[in-house]
Design a protein that fits this description.
The complex is a heterotrimer. Chain B is of the alpha+beta class. Chain B is built from 8 helices and 20 strands. Classes of the chains: A mainly alpha, B alpha+beta, C mainly alpha.
Chain lengths: 296, 374, 272
C-alpha cells in the first residue's frame, strides 16, 4: 500500500500537470478563435452528455494547421529556429570543449575552484546574464566604445538586435550546460589509455582525436542535447537580443498568444514544435538511460 | 578436560531450529537454488561453503527475509516464514560490507535495533554496554564509523547484530576484508562469542580454511545444491564426491577401475602398474570406474621402496614447494600422472634428503585413501 | 598523464573571461552616476537607493520569494519520492511513461510548458495567481530534484537499508532514519536547484501568473524590453552578490567537512 502511494503521488501529479496539459494544447490547436472568455470555441460542455461530446468533436478541425502551412512566416520561423539552434549548439561545443578539456587537464588542487567558477554563472539568474549583453552589444555599448577607443573601427558595429547577438547570447547562457557533461566524461576517462596510445605510436594530437574525443562522446552528446533542445524554443534571448527579423518560434508563439490573442494558432505552433522535438527528446532520454546503466 | 560431543543432527529427538523443505529459487531463467532440503539445529555454527554463484548468499538472504522462495518452505522455530518480513523475524544479519550507519555513532549503531523494539532506556544502555564489553569496543562508543579501523568496524557490526539476542545470526563473509593475522584471531573470537551467547550462527564463506576452523558442520554447495553436509573432519577425511574432495584442501585424484578383493578393492589405474589397494564402505561392482582420493599429507615419500605399506609407487620429483613448515613434492609417476606428497620439514634445509629430479617412492596405507564413485 | 599545456591555460583564461566579463561590466555600470548607462559619469550608489524605494520591485521580489520557497519545498518532496521510485521501484505498470515524464521537462522549451499549463488552468476554471505559479514551478522543478536525488540514490549502499530492516525498521522508518540523513546533501542541493529555477523563471511565470501576481523576473523583463536601465543593473549586482556568497560558502563548507572526514579516516587506519 505504501509503495502504491509512493509511486502514485508523483505519477499522478505529473500526469495531471504535465501530460494532460499537452492533450489540452492539442485540443485547442484544433479549435477556432472566438471573442469569448476563454477566447476559443468550441468548449467542452459535459452537461449535454454524449450528444454534446459529439457536437464538440465535430467542430474540431485542422484549420489552424493549414493556416500555418500557408503563411510563410511560420514555415520560415521553424526553419530559422532550427538553423539558429544548430549553429548555436556547434558554437557552444567549440567554445565549451576546450574549457572542459582545460579543466580536466588542470592540476588536482585547482579542480574544485574551476568547477566552482563554472557553476557560479549557472546559479546566477538567466535573465540577468542575457540582459548583461544588452549593455555590451548596443551601439553605445561597452564593446563598441572599446573598439572605437582603440581605433579598431571608426563607426559602431551594429550587433544588438541582430542574429549575431542571438548567437552570442545562446552560447553565453548555455555554456555551463555544455561544459559540465563534457568535463564529467573527461574526468572519468582513464589517463593510462592515452599513455597506451602514445606507447603504440600516436602523436599527441592524434591521440587526442583518436582516443580522447571518442571517449568523451557521451558527454558531447549530452551537452549538445542540453543546448539544442531548449535553444530551439528559446524566447528570452531572441526577444532581448534579437531584432524584428530574428525569426524564432518561441518568440512567434509568445506573440501569437499575448499580442494576437490567437490561442488556437499558438497551440498549433506549440504542437508542431513539440513534434519536431520528440525525436531529440527521446534520443536524449535514451542517452541518459544508457549512461546510468553504464555507471551502475 | 572431558568434551561432550556436540552433534544434535545425530539425535533423533532433537528438533531443528531451521528447516529448508524442498526450497527452490529462480531469478527469471536462472535457477539459484534447486530443490534444497536441510535442517540446521540450535547452537550450531553452520557454514555454507562454495564458489561464487553457488547459491549460498541467496540461501542466507532467504533466511533473513530479503528474498522469497519460488517453491518450498522455510521454517524457523517451527514457524513458516513465507510472509514474514525481515523486520519481524528473530533473525539478525552481519553484512559483508558491515553496513554501519555512517551518520550514527558506534553506540547508536548498536542501540539501533534495541530502540526499534521500544525497550526502556536503562535496559538499552545496559545491553549496549554489555555488547561493547563483549567486543572490546568500550573506548570507541562515541566515535563514528569512519573514525575507526576496519577491524573495529567488523566488531561493531558483530555487536550490533547480537544486541537483540537473536535466535539466529547470519554472517555474510564476515572476515573477507581483514588481513590474515586479524582473520585468524577473529575466527576464534567468533567461536568464543557463539558459545558464550548460545546463538545459532550460519556463516557464508568461500574460504574453506575459515569454514573448517569455525564451524560445527559444513555444507559444501555447488550450483544451487548442497553436495555434502558433515563435520569438518568428516568433510575432509570422507568426502562424498570428487567435487567436495577437491574443494576442501589439497587432494590427489587417481582414476581407475575397481575389482573387489577380500574386504577391500584393487584399483587398476595404469597399464603395467601394480593396482592400488583400498578399503571403503561404498559398494563397487567388478569393473566399475572409480576415483581414488588421497590427501598429500597421507602420502609418504622415501628414497627406498617401503616394505610394509599397502601401496607404493615410483616416481620422479618434478617440483618442490617449500612452505616453511612443510614441503609439497610434485612427483611424476610412470604413466605421466602427477601426485603431490607433503612432508613436514623436520630437518633443516642443508640436511634435507630430497631434491629436484630425485627418483623416489610414494606410499600410503589401504585406509588412507577414499574411493569415490564416478 | 595530465599535461597542462599553453593551449589549456589559454582556453581556460579566455573561457572564464568570456563567462565573467559581462557580469563584471554590469556590476561596474551599476555604480555609474549617469543615467545613460554606457557613459561613465562618476561613481555613485544612487541607483541602489532608487531601487530599494521602488515599491513595485519590492512587491515583486516578495511574491517571487514566496513562490520559490513554496514550490521548491513541495518539489523536493515529490522529486525525492520520484527518485526513490525510479531507483528502487523495480518494474511496475507505466514505468516507461513515468520515467519519460520525469526526463522530458528537463529539456522542454519553457514556452510549451507555460502555454500548456495556462490552458489547463483555464480549462478547469482555476483562477490564475500565486497558487498557479506555485503549481507550475513545482511541476518542472520536481524533475530536476529527482535527477539530482536519483543520481545520489544510485550510489547509495543498499545494504544500509537492508541492515535497518533487519534490525526491526519498517520500510518507511528505514528511509526516515537511515536513507534520508545520508542522502540529505543531495536533497538539499535539489531544494536549492528548485529554488533557483523558480526564482529565475520568466516564461512559465508569465503564462501562469494572473493579472494580480507579478514576479521579479516578469518585472525585470518588462523594464528591460525598452532598453538598459540603471536600476536593473543595481538589482542584478545585488542578485549576483547573493548567489556568489551562497555558492562560495557552500563550497567552503563542503570542502571543510570532506577534509575533516579524510583526516578522521586516516587517523583511524593508523590504529587498529
Amino acid at each position: 500500500m505504501r509503495r502504491f502511494i509512493l509511486i502514485a503521488v508523483p505519477f499522478f501529479w505529473l500526469l495531471a500537470l504535465f501530460l494532460v496539459p499537452f492533450v489540452i494544447v492539442l485540443k485547442i490547436s484544433l479549435s477556432d478563435i472566438a471573442l469569448s472568455i476563454p477566447p476559443y470555441t468550441p468548449q467542452l460542455d459535459l452537461t449535454d452528455g454524449w450528444a454534446g461530446i459529439k457536437a464538440f468533436l465535430s467542430q474540431l478541425d485542422l484549420e489552424n494547421y493549414i493556416f500555418l502551412t500557408q503563411d510563410q512566416l511560420y514555415w520560415k520561423a521553424y526553419v530559422s529556429s532550427l538553423k539558429i539552434a544548430l549553429i548555436s549548439t556547434v558554437l557552444t561545443l567549440l567554445v565549451g570543449y576546450p574549457i572542459a578539456y582545460g579543466m580536466a587537464q588542470a592540476p588536482d588542487e585547482w579542480r574544485a575552484t574551476l568547477l566552482l567558477l563554472v557553476i557560479l554563472p549557472f546559479w546566477t539568474s538567466f535573465l540577468i546574464r542575457v540582459y548583461s549583453w544588452m549593455g555590451i552589444l548596443s551601439n553605445e555599448g561597452f564593446l563598441n566604445q572599446f573598439l572605437l577607443w582603440t581605433g579598431i573601427i571608426s563607426t559602431p558595429l551594429v550587433i544588438l538586435n541582430t542574429n549575431t547577438a542571438v548567437y552570442i547570447g545562446i552560447v553565453y547562457t548555455y555554456l555551463p550546460f555544455m561544459i559540465l557533461p563534457i568535463y564529467a566524461a573527461l574526468e572519468k576517462m582513464d589517463g593510462s589509455l592515452l599513455e597506451a596510445a602514445e606507447d603504440l605510436g600516436c602523436s599527441r594530437s592524434s591521440a587526442f582525436w583518436l582516443v580522447t574525443i571518442p571517449l568523451s562522446k557521451s558527454g558531447i552528446i549530452a551537452g549538445c542535447f542540453l543546448v539544442f533542445i531548449p535553444a530551439l524554443g528559446e524566447f528570452v534571448i531572441p526577444s532581448l537580443l534579437g531584432g524584428s527579423d530574428t525569426l524564432m518560434i518561441g518568440k512567434i508563439l509568445w506573440e501569437e498568444f499575448f499580442s494576437n490573442r490567437d490561442w488556437p494558432v499558438a497551440s498549433a505552433v506549440a504542437v508542431i514544435l513539440l513534434l519536431i522535438l520528440i525525436i531529440p527528446i527521446v534520443l536524449f532520454q535514451r542517452n541518459e538511460q544508457k549512461q546510468r546503466e553504464m555507471d551502475q | 578436560m572431558a568434551q561432550t560431543v556436540f552433534a544434535p543432527w545425530d539425535d533423533p529427538q532433537a528438533k531443528p531450529l531451521i528447516q529448508f523443505k524442498n526450497v527452490s529459487k529462480r531469478f527469471g531463467d536462472f535457477t539459484a537454488i534447486e530443490n534444497l532440503t536441510q535442517d540446521i539445529y540450535e547452537r550450531e555454527f553452520f557454514a555454507l561453503l562454495g564458489p561464487s554463484g553457488c547459491g549460498k548468499t541467496t540461501l542466507m538472504r532467504m533466511l533473513a527475509g530479503f528474498e522469497n522462495t519460488s517453491e518450498g518452505q522455510i521454517l524457523i522455530a517451527g514457524q513458516d516464514m513465507a510472509n514474514v518480513p525481515p523486520n519481524k523475524r528473530a533473525v539478525n544479519m552481519m553484512f559483508q560490507s558491515y553496513a554501519l550507519f555512517p551518520h550514527l555513532s558506534i553506540w547508536e549503531n548498536i542501540a539501533f535495533g534495541l530502540k526499534r523494539e521500544g525497550k526502556p532506556k536503562d535496559q538499552i544502555e545496559a545491553r549496549v554496554d554489555e555488547m561493547l564489553r563483549l567486543t572490546r569496543l568500550e573506548k570507541f562508543s562515541k566515535r563514528k564509523p569512519h573514525q575507526i579501523s576496519g577491524g573495529q568496524r567488523q566488531r561493531v557490526a558483530l555487536a550490533r547484530s547480537l544486541a537483540k539476542a537473536p535466535k539466529l545470526l547470519l554472517l555474510d563473509e564476515p572476515l573477507g576484508a581483514l588481513d590474515k593475522k586479524l582473520r585468524q584471531d577473529t575466527q576464534f573470537e567468533l567461536m568464543d562469542i557463539q558459545e558464550k551467547t548460545g546463538t545459532t550462527f550460519v556463516i557464508v564463506t568461500h574460504d574453506q580454511e575459515e569454514a573448517m576452523t569455525v564451524s560445527s558442520r559444513v555444507a559444501v554447495m555447488d550450483e544451487g545444491q548442497i553436495i555434502q553436509v558433515a563435520t569438518p573432519a568428516q568433510i575432509y577425511e570422507a568426502p562424498n564426491s570428487v567435487y567436495v574432495a577437491d574443494f576442501i584442501g589439497d587432494v590427489n585424484i587417481i582414476d581407475g577401475v575397481a575389482t573387489p578383493e577380500g574386504d577391500g578393492y584393487r584399483i587398476a589405474w595404469a597399464e603395467g602398474q601394480t593396482p592400488f589397494v583400498a578399503k571403503t564402505a561404498t559398494r563397487f561392482s567388478e569393473g566399475q570406474r572409480c576415483h581414488l582420493a588421497i590427501r598429500p599429507e597421507k602420502v609418504g615419500i622415501s628414497a627406498e621402496r617401503p616394505v610394509d605399506m599397502a601401496n607404493a609407487v615410483a616416481g620422479q620429483i618434478i617440483d618442490i614447494a617449500y612452505l616453511g613448515n612443510i614441503s609439497t613434492y610434485h612427483v611424476k609417476l610412470a604413466n605421466g600422472q602427477m601426485m603431490k606428497a607433503q612432508a613436514a620439514n623436520t630437518r633443516r634445509l642443508s640436511r634435507r634428503t630430497f631434491t629436484w629430479e630425485d627418483q623416489v617412492w610414494l606410499s600410503w596405507t589401504d585406509t588412507a585413501a577414499v574411493v569415490l564413485e564416478n | 598523464m595530465r599535461r597542462f599545456s599553453w593551449f589549456n591555460a589559454t582556453s581556460l583564461t579566455l573561457g572564464f573571461a568570456f563567462l565573467y566579463l559581462p557580469m563584471l561590466i554590469l556590476i561596474i555600470y551599476s555604480f555609474n552616476a549617469s543615467r545613460l548607462v554606457t557613459v561613465w559619469a562618476g561613481f555613485s550608489t544612487q541607483w541602489y537607493g532608487t531601487l530599494l524605494q521602488n515599491q513595485s520591485f519590492l512587491d515583486a521580489a516578495w511574491v517571487t520569494i514566496k513562490v520559490a520557497i513554496a514550490s521548491s519545498t513541495i518539489a523536493t518532496v515529490l522529486g525525492t519520492m520520484a527518485a526513490y521510485v525510479l531507483v528502487r521501484g523495480g518494474r511496475f505498470m507505466g514505468r516507461t511513461l513515468f520515467s519519460g515524464m520525469i526526463y522530458a521537462p528537463l529539456v522542454m522549451p519553457e514556452v510549451i510548458t507555460g502555454l500548456s499549463l495556462l490552458l489547463l488552468f483555464i480549462g478547469i476554471g482555476l483562477d490564475r495567481g500565486v497558487f498557479t505559479i506555485v503549481l507550475a514551478h513545482t511541476t518542472f522543478s520536481m524533475c530536476f530534484v529527482s535527477v539530482v536525488v536519483s543520481s545520489r540514490l544510485v550510489s547509495f549502499d543498499k545494504s544500509l537499508e537492508e541492515a535497518a530492516l533487519d534490525l526491526g525498521c519498517s520500510a518507511f522508518d528505514a528511509f526516515r532514519l537511515v536513507t534520508l540523513p545520508i542522502i540529505a546533501p543531495a536533497v538539499i542541493s535539489g531544494w536549492l536547484l528548485a529554488f533557483t529555477l523558480s526564482l529565475d523563471d520568466l516564461v512559465i511565470a508569465s503564462f501562469t501568473a494572473g493579472p494580480s501576481a507579478t514576479t521579479l523576473p516578469i518585472r525585470i523583463f518588462s523594464a528591460v524590453r525598452l532598453g538598459v536601465s540603471p536600476e536593473i543593473n543595481a538589482l542584478s549586482t545585488i542578485m549576483i552578490a547573493i548567489v556568489t556568497v551562497g555558492v562560495v560558502t557552500a563550497s567552503i563548507v563542503t570542502k571543510r567537512s570532506s577534509l575533516a572526514r579524510q583526516n578522521d579516516e586516516q587517523a583511524a587506519a593508523r590504529t587498529t
